[in-house]
Amino acid sequence: MEDLEDFIHLENLKILRRQIDLAKDDVRRQWLMIRLAEEEAKGRVATR
User: Fold this and answer.
1) How far apart are CA 6 and CA 21, in angstroms?
2) How many C-alpha atoms does 8 have within 13 Å on its Cβ side?
3) What does the DSSP 8-state code read for residue 2?
4) Which of 40, 41, 44, 45 has its CA nearest to residue 20?
5) How sure is the predictor about 44, in pLDDT bands with cuts at 50, 70 and 90?
6) Would 28 disulfide with which of 1, 6, 12, 23, CB 3.0-4.6 Å?
7) The whole model's pTM is what?
8) Among candidates 9, 14, 40, which has minimal Cα distance to 22?
């Protein structure tokens, strides 16, 4: 099950980074940056 969770985590990171690149306004970009930071934090916790 861990492999699936790792895959989903990595895909979420890719999607968020792509969406940040495509964001047309600062409000959306900031919201996505917060979500990206949260997702990155999940990965650090999961690998410990």
Assistant:
1) 23
2) 7
3) H
4) 40
5) confident
6) 23
7) 0.84
8) 14
Contact 35, 12 (CB under 8 A): no
Hey, what are 12's tokens? 């979420």
CB atoms within 10 A of CB 16: 19
Check whether 48 has a pLDDT greater than 50: no
**Torsion angle, alpha carbons of 14, 32, 42, 11, to 10:** -20
Domain ranges of the chain: 2-46
* Cα 11 to the center of its chain, rounded Å: 8
What SS3 string covers the chain?
CHHHHHHHHHHHHHHHHHHHHHCCCHHHHHHHHHHHHHHHHHHHHHCC
